[in-house]
Design goal:
Layout: H1 3-14, H2 19-46, H3 48-62, H4 76-92, H5 94-105, H6 117-148, H7 160-177, H8 180-189, H9 195-200, H10 202-216, H11 222-260
């Protein structure tokens, strides 16, 4: 945490920041995020051969070790490299992105609650990695399902751009989807939502989660949709339990403050 961050927290807590100061703070956070992503993209560009081999593995396994892709456009290999580098840069910069988001949206927490910043960022990273990993493991059976819908006369031979787009968006979609409980707990902490409300909405939540999983899953197959919807549903109820624990602790701290005064 920098001295600038401390001054920003003090100003926000006392309500002394103007709208222009808020915008300046947002600009600073966005610049830091952009620099982190740019560094990650540069690293991804040089690691491209290893990244491509890793991403192509599910397709190779599906075709008994044969990894042949087509490129119908002369620029497709280059733009594929840029695409993979950009996705990798976002993933590599994720700790910085999450930290900057946390520092911007949660300055109004109680002092004893600010210590949850590092656990929140760590949990978000773990969940993102878990989601991306599940997407990677799910791609092989998802491709099997999709190829099984075609008649025997159709031979599946993917272009490198379409395949990379599919697996990259799958991993990003799952990774972002697995951030769902972190968002809910954060909203419970700042008082936007309560565990009681979330629990009363559980039927609607399951329907919404299913629809969202179907929409954001790039492949559109039921295997990937269920692989995303089921954990998100479980995370919904886990976030309710975590929010209830935080709420109970906040009440106990307020009680201590009243007694101490």
């Amino acid at each position: 945490m920098t001295a600038t961050d401390d001054r920003t927290d003090d100003a926000l807590a006392s309500g002394r920041m103007t709208i222009w100061e808020h915008l300046a703070e947002l600009r600073t956070r966005l610049i830091r995020c952009a620099i982190a992503v740019a560094i990650g993209v540069a690293v991804g560009y040089f690691l491209y051969p290893y990244l491509f081999t890793f991403l192509a593995q599910p397709y190779c396994d599906l075709n008994n070790g044969k990894c042949l892709f087509q490129a119908f456009d002369p620029t497709e290999p280059f733009f594929t490299r840029l695409k993979i580098s950009t996705y990798f840069g976002i993933i590599l910069a994720m700790p910085v992105l999450l930290w900057q988001i946390w520092r911007f949206v949660t300055p109004g927490l109680y002092a004893h609650e600010k210590r949850y910043a590092i656990p929140f960022v760590a949990a978000a990273l773990v969940l993102f990695t878990l989601g991306a990993s599940i997407a990677y493991w799910t791609l092989n059976p998802a491709l099997q399902f999709l190829q099984g819908q075609a008649p025997s006369e159709v031979v599946s031979n993917y272009t490198v751009g379409s395949y990379v787009t599919l697996i990259s968006l799958m991993m990003l979609a799952f990774g972002i989807g697995f951030e769902f409980p972190v968002l809910l707990v954060a909203l419970e902490l700042v008082g936007v939502l309560t565990p009681r409300k979330l629990l009363s909405w559980w039927r609607y939540a399951i329907v919404i989660i299913t629809v969202v999983a179907a929409v954001i899953t790039p492949s559109g197959d039921p295997i990937s949709m269920l692989a995303l919807a089921l954990p998100m549903t479980l995370f919904y109820f886990i976030s309710i339990a975590i929010g209830a624990i935080f709420q109970r602790r906040r009440r106990s701290v307020r009680g201590d403050d009243v007694i101490g005064s």
